[in-house]
Amino acid sequence: MLKDITLGQYFPGNSVIHRMDPRTKLVGLIIYIVALFTATSWLSYGIMLAFLIVMVALSKIPVKALFKGMKPLIFILIFTGLLNLLFNGGETVLVAFWKITITLEGVIRAFFMVARILMLISATFLMTYTTSPIQLTDGLESLLSPLKKIRVPVHELAMMMCIALRFIPTLIEETDKIISAQKARGADFETGSVLKRVKALVPILVPLFISAFRRADELATAMECRCYQGGEGRTKMKLLRYRRRDYFAYLILLMLLSGVIVAASFGL
Amino acid sequence: MAPILEVRNLSHTYSIGTPFAHKALDNVSFAVERGEFIGVIGHTGSGKSTLMQHLNGLLKPEIGEILLDGVDIWSDKKVTRLSRFRVGLVFQYPEYQLFEETVYKDIAFGPKNMGLKSAEIDRRVREAAKLVGLTEAQLEVSPFDLSGGQKRRVAIAGVIAMEPEVLVLDEPTAGLDPEGREEVLSNIEDYRRSKNATIMMVSHSMNDVARLADRLLVMNDAMLAMDGTPEQVFTRAQELVDMGLDIPEITKLFLQLRKLGLPVEPVFTMEQAIKVLRELKEGNANA
């Protein structure tokens, strides 16, 4: 069933990582990614991996869940790995037959590339797993608020993102229902040519769009009934506030980044 | 005569093998005779809708089997597909599945999927539309221009046009006004009479099922708790209340009257009530 999609789903919990300010996690993720792309050597990759492992352990997110989310990305990983393995110059030839040459440099390069992507995805998932969509949009709104000065509608963008995230499960459920209802009328989605299968989607998409518009309309009315007028003068019940653990997290992150930069400049 | 539909030891678990596993049906068995009108009652989450979706092969039983005319509907792919047409399923709020440009085309969707000839499709569409009280002119308008009650009837006509031997309806009157409810219920009765069809209707209205159904199935916590005539089921009023269900208003009134000392047996429909009260009155006048 469509319901079983878990990509980037929030895992409720009460670990240090869960309680951290969403802004710290957002900025932290960016710092981590920058550090990841600066890292060049075994040592720096090792540090990055160790950091990630500690973070996952702290968050108490089951490792299984982390790997489960990566399933859809296997193709990209294999593709990147192969590309780097095969099309990389290098001196030390390991295997050579027909037009394929595999060099030691290529193997190392491919390994680093795949490791980098894996760590990048894990870190991103770690953030979405430990931060609820509402916290995430709150954090994003707060981080982007300087842009309000140049008339970027930051609050509206954040609200749109929040609503979109909120309605993903609802729409998935709705799609399931419509598919069942049309199947009960003998609709066939599994056989026939590509064109026929695309046409078979019409009885699903039309009702789905209509219901999405109806829901949007109802939601807008409900929001207006509660006097929603956009971000102007709106106060928050849960104010975002940096605490000691957040400053501590920033400190560690900056140390990580500078450490990796120093290591890179020394060619380590 | 052999039963048209037979459910044997049916169990179903959702999201099996995950932490969200949830048992929706637990060893449910019953048989349905041709031409019966069966009411299915049970509170939300008792497994009614899951049961309904098994009857036409939308869900595959985890354990157990469903026999249509003595043949397991999962015995062969073709049989499964055919069972979708022989057992017509009307979902909750079926008007949300309308999609075509005209009412006519939408009703024709089912018969078209059956691979019928266009003359036969035309006959079925017009017959189904007439049965649910849609006018010829309404066949050519967009279904989205109709009122809520009319949309509901178009959606039901879309299933009726497949001329299923068993018509299964999941709360067909939910969200309709009293007039709309009556119309939909009488459409269902009309279809049953004209085709000698079997009806299974999920409903939260005890008054409706008491009046229409020959037999009631009561679902509770994924299990079939009761199976019997409305008289048999509503006599066990206290058990129903314990399950979070209701009894017909008129039955409540009569139970109250009995408490006050009137020598009456509980009744389930308005007609029965009138008869009993009249007899009582005449009896008192004679005495």
Question: If you had to describe this structure to a student in words, what would you say it looks like?
Answer:
The complex is a heterodimer of chains A (268) and B (287). With 268 residues, chain A is mostly helical. Chain A has 2 domains: 9-131 and 239-268, no CATH class; 153-237, no CATH class. Chain A is 67% helix and 3% strand. Chain A contains 11 helices and 2 strands; from the N terminus they run H-H-H-H-H-E-E-H-H-H-H-H-H. Chain A has a two-stranded antiparallel sheet with strand order 1-2. In chain A, helix 3 (42-59) runs parallel beside helix 6 (104-130), helix 7 packs antiparallel against helix 8 and helix 8 crosses helix 10 (202-225). The longest helix of chain A has 31 residues, at 154-184. The N and C termini of chain A lie far apart (48 Å). The mean pLDDT of chain A is 84. Chain B has helices at residues 48-55, 77-86, 103-113, 118-131, 148-160, 178-195, 206-212, 230-235, 237-242, 249-259, 270-286; strands at 5-14, 22-32, 37-41, 63-68, 71-72, 87-90, 166-170, 198-202, 215-220, 223-228. Chain B has 287 residues and is α/β, with parallel strands linked by helices. Chain B has 11 helices and 10 strands. Chain B starts with a strand and ends with a helix. The longest helix of chain B is centred in the middle third of the chain and has 18 residues, at 178-195. Chain B has 2 domains: 5-247, Rossmann fold; 248-287, no CATH class. In chain B, the strands form 2 sheets. Chain B has a 6-stranded mixed beta sheet, sandwiched between helices. Chain B has a 4-stranded antiparallel beta sheet with strand order 2-1-4-5, covered by helices on one side. Chain A binds chain B through residues 3-4, 177-178, 180-188, 202-203, 206-207, 210-211, and chain B through 15, 18, 53, 56, 58, 81, 84-85, 88-91, 94, 96-99, 109-110, 113-114, 144, 158-159, 162.
